[in-house]
Amino acid sequence: TGVEFEMIDLVKEMDRRGVENFAGVKYTGLYETRAFPDAMRCAAYKGGKYDILSGREELMIESLAAGIEGFIGSQFNYGGDIYNAIYSETDSTKRNALQLASIELLYVWLENVPSTIDGNKLMVNLAGVPIGPARLPMLPPSDEDIATLKTAVQGWCGEYAGIFDNGVAICRAVGSAVVVE
Question: Rounded to two decimals, what is the model's pTM?
């Protein structure tokens, strides 16, 4: 939107005005320099009075460290099991490895799907969740686009699926040779 201000100011103002249906903030701009300190201040405001949610799954560990406990994101549609594993892992070294794996899966589609195609939607369809074709202005993927992404996901599965205790659903959906039961 091009509008930038610290969310703590919004939270305080909503509280001051007594806006009863104000529940909190979904933080999507967590890539900004002061976003995490601001998110932490919001999460701590009045003992955690408001829900502060992350819209960046790939920053789950950082978000948890800042006091954010709720997440809203599109990657959960094809990788919910991956993010549940990150969320529930207590060993920091393994948690970091799991999050890096999730980031690498994100880059699988970012690097293998043309920008004119909705890569996230294609990932969800590959995962076996039939959500239908893309809508304009996004273009439908060609058979070659689908095959390229499927091969790239299979490659990711071969490298990373084994670190997840219960396997990874998208790997089973794309027929990866690495399946942990």
Answer: 0.88
